[in-house]
Structures are given as structure tokens and as C-alpha cells.
């Protein structure tokens, strides 16, 4: 399958629900339109998202992922992932238990964290569909180039924070929205599997929602720390 095989609707139907998939607000506005898709922006949390009518099916989505060539042994790929692993490792106690959420077919980051002395579980709906690991609790969870693919980010973030132990870390790698003008020129929206786009404001809203510490590392790495004492 190629991108040219995918047929997109001409427009969103008037009866299509268009709530923000992250905060569920209905305060959303048209943000951008290109040859393939429409993009909406939430006035409440700032998420920019692709409405359901313009998304790939799971089968089409996996066909795109199968074209990726992320070799766990590739030094260049390891260097890319180190943008998350290096700052995250500084936060962890020795022998921590982690989850590589959305690990893909070649879990390079999990290998890197294990080499640093931590134990890892893997989950990916297409390549490591092991839902039993989602019943555990973790000292840290990694989600590298994952959150932009989430179809139900509200549910997924709630699940991720539930899996974290008090004081645990959620490490995210994703490119961030700057402004509307830059968005239209952005290579990141050309990947049709990318359906959610976050900004610093969006992550600030998430941190408030989960009462989490928030740390921005460079342009595309975000660390969130769950509160150390859980609410009763």
C-alpha cells in the first residue's frame, strides 16, 4: 500500500463529533488544511488534532510502520534515542523497573535502558501486544515518538499515569507545535500516522491534570513526574 492508495473524505460531515480527544472539550476551531487532511485546535488544552474522518485505519497505519527501518543496533538511532534516555537515566534509582510503551518492532530504547541496569517490559499494539504488562506498576515509562499516534490520548495518558508508581517518571519524545504559520510548513504533519500534535501549553495542561512535575529537555523531550504521595 502507498499513500496514493488511501482515499480521504472531501470534508468533515456536519454530524461528525469533533471534541478534543485529549481533554474532551468541544471548544475547538479549524486550524489548518492541506491536500490530505484537516486539523483542529482545542482552545482549552491547545492540542492540534486530526478529526476521525481523516485518519488511517489500523491496517493502513501498520502498513506505514512496516516501512520504517529503525535498527536497534544502529548508532545513529541510538544517538537519537539518547536525547530521552540520558536525562531520564539521571532521574532513576538503580535497578528501576520500566515500560517501553509503543516500542515498535525494534525496541532499541529498552535495550539501552537494560544496558544501564534497569529492567524493562515492552508494549506495542502492533508489535508487542502484551496487555498483561499494562497491569503492572512502573518506576518509569518511556514513550518515544508515540503520543502523536494516539487515537484516544485522554484514555492513554490516564492509563500511563495509573501505571506509574508514586514519584515515577513518564518520558516522552515528540515534536511540538510552535504556531500556526510554522505548522503549515512542518514536515511532522506529512506523516499520515501522526494525528495529535502537542505544544508546551498542552503539556502544561497535562501536568496540571495529573498534578505532575514537568520538565522540558530541548525541543522534543518532555519528562513528567508523578506526585510522590498519591491522593486518597
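Sequence proposed for the structure above (232 residues):
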Amino acid at each position: 500500500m502507498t499513500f496514493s492508495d488511501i482515499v480521504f473524505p472531501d470534508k468533515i460531515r456536519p454530524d461528525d463529533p469533533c471534541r478534543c480527544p485529549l481533554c474532551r472539550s468541544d471548544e475547538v476551531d479549524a486550524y489548518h488544511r492541506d491536500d490530505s487532511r484537516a486539523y483542529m485546535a482545542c482552545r482549552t488544552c491547545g492540542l492540534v488534532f486530526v478529526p476521525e474522518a481523516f485518519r488511517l485505519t489500523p491496517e493502513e497505519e501498520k502498513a506505514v510502520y512496516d516501512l520504517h527501518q529503525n535498527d536497534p543496533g544502529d548508532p545513529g538511532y541510538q544517538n537519537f534515542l539518547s536525547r530521552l534516555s540520558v536525562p531520564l537515566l539521571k532521574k532513576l534509582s538503580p535497578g528501576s523497573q520500566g515500560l517501553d510503551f509503543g516500542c515498535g518492532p525494534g525496541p532499541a530504547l529498552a535495550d539501552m535502558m537494560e544496558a544501564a541496569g534497569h529492567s524493562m517490559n515492552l508494549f506495542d499494539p502492533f508489535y508487542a501486544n502484551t496487555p498483561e504488562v499494562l497491569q503492572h506498576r512502573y518506576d518509569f515509562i518511556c514513550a518515544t515518538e508515540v503520543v502523536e499516534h494516539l487515537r484516544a490520548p485522554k484514555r492513554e495518558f490516564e492509563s500511563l499515569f495509573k501505571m506509574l508508581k508514586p514519584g515515577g517518571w513518564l518520558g516522552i519524545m515528540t515534536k511540538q507545535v510552535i504556531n500556526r504559520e510554522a505548522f503549515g510548513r512542518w514536515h511532522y504533519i506529512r506523516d499520515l500516522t501522526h494525528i495529535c500534535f502537542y505544544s508546551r501549553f498542552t503539556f502544561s495542561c497535562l501536568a496540571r491534570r495529573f498534578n505532575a512535575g514537568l520538565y522540558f529537555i530541548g525541543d522534543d523531550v518532555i519528562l513528567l513526574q508523578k506526585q510522590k504521595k498519591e491522593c486518597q
